[in-house]
Amino acid sequence: MKLAIAGALGAISVLLLWWARVKRRDRWRHVVADVAYDEVHYVDTSDGWRLALYRYRPAAEIAAETPILLCHGLGLNHRIFDLGRGRSLARWLRARGRDVWLVDLRTTHTARYTGQARPRGVAIEELVDRDARAALDRVVGLTGAASVDWLGFQLGGTVGAAVAGGRLGGRIRSLALFAAPFDLRVAPGLAVVRSTTRWLQRHGVIRLRAWCRRLAGTRLGARRLRDAMRSRSNLQADLAGALAYVAVEDIDAELLVSATVWAAADGAPRSTRGVDYRARASATARPLWLVAGTGDAIAPPASVAALAAAWGGDVTLRVVGANACEIAGRHDLASVEAVETATRWGHLDLIAGARAPDMVWYPVLAFLERLDDGALAAETWGT
User: Fold this and answer.
1) How far is CA 276 from CA 74, 166, 283, in A?
2) Cβ-contact 194, 260 below 8 angstroms
3) Whole-angstrom Cα distance, residue 246 to residue 301?
4) Over the Cα atoms of the chain, what is R_g?
5) Is the dihedral of CA 302, 307, 311, 313 positive or negative?
6) Structure letter (DSSP) for residue 270
7) Of 158, 169, 82, 170, which is closest to residue 127 (Cα–Cα)?
8) What is d(CA 32, CA 186) in angstroms, rounded to the nearest whole number?
């Protein structure tokens, strides 16, 4: 009798686990399937990686001449810009006449290594000198454009700024960067990383993708993810769940450990060969637009402002969130915009928050339109 009861309970447990797994897949199936790219391309880097490039052709009759390249951050993929209808920066720009390209760097699950033995770890110069080059070559080659507008989130912004100050700078007309850290000393989110450096070096990869997909399968899990993102006020729980299910990637530990090394010095991102990317930024005069959230623990306004202070060309820093005026006033820059709100804006709020279109997307579009109209002086486009 006891064996029969135990067997029945075991069978019920298996059925419940199976049902939960099916429901988890069904919950976000519409988000996974809600993509309608006009083109998908695969590009090879010079060191053996194959990367995916996705394209949305402009929907408007009159299209802008300069294409946009969207570059994601660490622990994310291109879907951070394309979370579905009504919450996709990529499609929003497409609807306004922009030729939009999205890249998946070698840090994503879609990237494939075509060589014999896959290398362990990723260095930032590989993203700057190899991944960015492969993506820019393909976009410029297929569109015939002289350059692109680089829109980067988090690490994607840091990479874009480093590219603009290097040999590939001529391929970039302008940069609009969301939460792009450039002084790691003032990023409180790194405190946890510093305390786990040895563990990270031993394991190599933080398996975040599978964990987030499991949590996103339930409403409670989605709410917990939203709270972990520090976006209780600006990011809906369902959107946080969708983001976690389709846009989160495993994190390469070598890049995180590198960040702690940078923070221990002067905070500036550097290659393993010692190239200071913040110093390189002063050599470029490309127009730059930056946005930072007052509640961002990964890229706080002070970290983002370090890039603005070092930049060699026209630059605007936009600070959004509670106490934005007070925080913006700390930075002695020629152009600082403060947008005061009732709540603090976290890391992901800037790209996926409920008010992101009004507070961030439209200002980015206005910046690009000023370039199209020649409102920004042509001499600031020089290298």
Assistant:
1) 19, 11, 12
2) yes
3) 28
4) 21
5) negative
6) B
7) 158
8) 36
Cα separation, 222 vs 18, whole angstroms: 19
* Residue 41 to residue 53: CA distance in whole angstroms: 5
Query: What six digits make up the tokens of 245?
Result: 């299910």
Tokens 């990529």, located at residue: 90
* Bridge partner list, 339: 320
Strand pairing category for 315-321 and 251-252: unpaired
**DSSP tag of 129:** I
Domains of the chain, with CATH numbers? 1-33+211-246 (no CATH), 39-207+250-381 (3.40.50.1820)
- Cβ contacts of 362 within 8 Å, gap of 6 or more: none
Q: Terminus-to-terminus CA distance in the chain, angstroms? A: 81
pLDDT per residue of the chain (383 residues) written in tens, 0 to 9: 556 555 555 555 544 444 445 444 455 566 666 678 999 999 999 999 999 999 999 987 777 899 999 999 999 999 999 988 778 999 999 999 999 999 999 999 999 999 888 888 888 999 999 999 999 999 999 999 999 999 999 999 999 999 999 889 999 999 999 999 998 888 887 766 766 666 776 777 888 898 888 877 766 666 666 666 555 667 777 778 888 889 999 998 888 888 878 877 888 888 888 888 888 888 888 999 999 999 998 899 999 999 999 998 899 999 999 999 999 988 877 789 999 999 899 898 999 888 999 999 999 999 999 999 886 653 443 33
Q: State both tokens at 376.
A: 């920004």
pTM, entire model: 0.88
Q: Cβ-count burial of 260 within 10 angstroms (0-12 exposed, 13-18 middle, 19+ buried)? A: middle
Residue 340 tokens, joined: 């005061």
- In terms of phi and psi (left: phi > 0; alpha: psi -120 to 50; beta: otherwise), the region of 323 is left
- Closest residue by Cα to residue 151 from 135, 129, 134: 135
Distances (CA, A) of 370 to 64, 184, 311: 12, 31, 19
**Centroid of chain to Cα 369:** 22
CA 277 – CA 165 distance, rounded (Å): 8
> 41 forms bridges with which residues in the sheet?
53
How far, CA to CA in Å, does 83 sit from each of 18, 64, 92, 239, 247? 27, 24, 11, 8, 8
* Side chain identity, residue 184: L
